[in-house]
Amino acid sequence: MKNILFLSDNDFLKNYLSGIGFNLLSISECKKNNLDLIIVSEKRIDEVERIERKDINDIHKILLLDTYTKVDEIKSKILFPIDYFILKDDNLDEILKKIDNSIELIKIKKEKKFLLDTIKELNDINNRLIRKSQTLEDELNTDELANVYNRNFLIKRLQEELERVKRHDRNFAVAIIDIRELKVINKKYGYLIGDEVIKKVSKITSETIRNSDVLGRLSGNIFMVILPEIIEKYAVKVIERIINKVELTKIKDINLSVNCGFVLIKKDNIEEFSESNKILNILNKLIYYSKKIDQKIVEYKDENMNAIEEIENIVGLDEVEEEHNVLWEELNKSKKFIKNLLPKYDDWSEKINFGHLYLPFNFIGGDFFDFIEIDEDKTAIIFCDVSGHGVSSALYITSIKYIFKDLIVEKKIYEPEMVLDEFNKRILEISKGAVFVVTTYGYIDRKNKKFVFGFGGGTSPIKIDVKEKKMENLVEDGGFAIGLFEEAYFERKEIEIGMDDMILFYSDGIYEFLIENNIVEDDKQFYDIVKNSIDNEPDKFIGNIYKFMQEKTDKDIDFNDDITLLAVRCNICKNDM
Question: Are residues 68 and 48 in contact, defined by beta-carbon separation less than 8 angstroms?
Fold first, then answer.
């Protein structure tokens, strides 16, 4: 049925339209109902102008001419568009035909609007997919730490440049830059300082090269620069500028230094560089030779290559270096993978305010924490430390994340004593007693303002009243570590939490670090450090602890175990208070 606003004294037409199924509305009724068509007589045009509807100009209108007024004359007097005119001499068939045509036109316009809206929606979806695809491609091709291209992208780009030389006779240069003594820096100052060195060299190089040049990170301490369409003289100048800027840079008391090997590839020597791996092998040898003779830059020249061949055992260098690069690439992927398993701030900002410090020993480690939403009132918190450290411990992280997700999300088991009991059984089944996992598991109950938890060994979480700067150990006696005993027993505990409360979880790595560096001698001194670092914001609180560690150890930072701290601010209860 079509809704028509009928503004005319023509009772015959009114009764006829009503009789064949049209729903005729008054002005008061049309304000609250869908309106498909307006039929108005010449005498009542002003009533249409007073109708309070935002879409009034979009509704089709038919004007009934009561006199023999000319159409052009009436058009000039009306403030709104008219789609059809019913003339005084029109018979019933002509009138109905104009009404039918108007209704059909309404249908066509609605379909057109639907199609346009659908096309717009599809375009929006397509644009989002394009952006998502670009983001994923960027992630696949980007070295996260240095914020430049990664090894995979560089290899592909090298091959493209080689093909360009073959087809178009266009030269290009490629150089690798080796940060000297990065392993020593990592050992002496810690990986965070080593990471700062990598970022700094990356930034300096990015700012020195042209926009058309390509910078990427091949492996831990090695960058590659591809310089398309360049002459040898300019390539050397670019590399010299990079080296000079790097060596003028100082981080802490570290004077940065680099070595560089580069080659100019052109049509005359393209046969020597038929594929990207050959270029990498030669560049590795040039870097090796530059260190051997203590020369900052070594170019691919006959005299240099002849000297390299005379050095004992140089033949196997490329294979060793390549294996090292592949191993580093795999470790880098593993580090990124483990990092992606940890909760993201943006995903939890509405539920949990948290800060954390994650420092794995030897690149990747066995510390892990996670959040899982139980329901709208409860959020689970998992904090684990797998025995040992490094790759062997990290292998268990994925299994741990899956086990907790399966228990809480799939099997709807979330009470601490039940979760830890089942977790213990599964770890025993996987590890056969080869490892144990000290674990604190619990959940924030926002509705009842409680933290309900169970303790599976390790360090006790600390409840902190941020306002009063009061601290309370949540566990006084040690519990059963996960994965050691089939008969392990886990108790349920609960504490009240408020807007001013924060809970600190930490692995024993930080305590051992402070002891070994003679910063603390007992628990009390450790708690003093925590107390003096308290801040309203969890991330600043954690940052204060780490800043203290840096200041006290100065430059001799050396971690012998994974260090992880997690602070959860209980102002998540704020909306319920």
Answer: no
User: Do 431 and 454 share a domain, yes or no?
Assistant: yes
For the domain that residue 271 is a member of, what is the CATH number?
3.30.70.270
Q: What is the DSSP letter of 406?
A: I
Backbone phi and psi for residue 543, each to the nearest 5 degrees, phi listed first: -60, -35
- Rounded to two decimals, the pTM is 0.51
Count of positions (residues) in the chain: 577
Q: Are residues 285 and 265 in the same domain?
A: yes
Bridge-based pairing state of the strands 23-25 and 60-64: unpaired
Q: 451 is written with which tokens?
A: 């933290």
Tell me how many domains the chain contains: 3
- Three-class SS string for 326-392? HHHHHHHHHHHHHHHHCCCHHHHCCCCEEEEEEECCCCCCCEEEEEEEEECCEEEEEEEEECCCCHH
Mean pLDDT in order along the chain per 10 residues (577 residues): 80 83 81 77 78 71 67 68 75 80 78 85 83 71 89 89 84 92 83 89 94 91 92 88 91 89 87 82 87 88 79 51 62 72 85 87 77 93 84 78 93 95 92 86 93 93 92 86 88 91 91 82 88 91 87 59 84 47
Same domain, 267 and 360: no
> Contact, 299 vs 262, CB < 8 A?
yes
Q: How far apart are CA 192 and CA 208, in angstroms?
A: 25
- Angstrom distance (rounded) from CA 526 to CA 503: 16
Contact at 8 Å (CB) between 243 and 179? no
| Helices 151-168 and 276-292: angle between axes, nearest 10 degrees | 110
And the tokens for 31?
């304000």
pLDDT of residue 555: 46
Instruction: Specify whether 362 is located in the same domain as 506.
Output: yes
- Do 361 and 317 fall into the same domain? no
Classify residue 136: in a domain, yes or no. Answer: no
The amino acid at 138: D
Cβ 401 vs Cβ 368: under 8 Å = yes
Domain boundary among 304, 333, 362: 333
Which tokens is 543 given?
Answer: 């940052």
For residue 65, the 8-state DSSP code is -
Tokens 């003028």 belong to 248
Dihedral (CA of 42, 46, 47, 49) sign: positive
Could you tell me if residue 318 is inside a domain? yes
Whether residue 384 sits in one domain with residue 246: no
What CA–CA distance (Å, rounded) separates 423 from 421?
5
Handedness of CA 405, 408, 410, 411 (dihedral sign): positive
Strand blocks (E) in 65-110: 84-86
The CATH code of the domain that includes 408 is: 3.60.40.10
**Helix (H) / strand (E) containing 501:** strand 501-506
Q: CATH number for the domain including 103?
A: 3.40.50.2300
What is the end-to-end Cα distance of the chain in Å, rounded? 53
Max Cα–Cα distance, the chain, nearest Å: 112
192 and 315 both lie in a single domain: yes
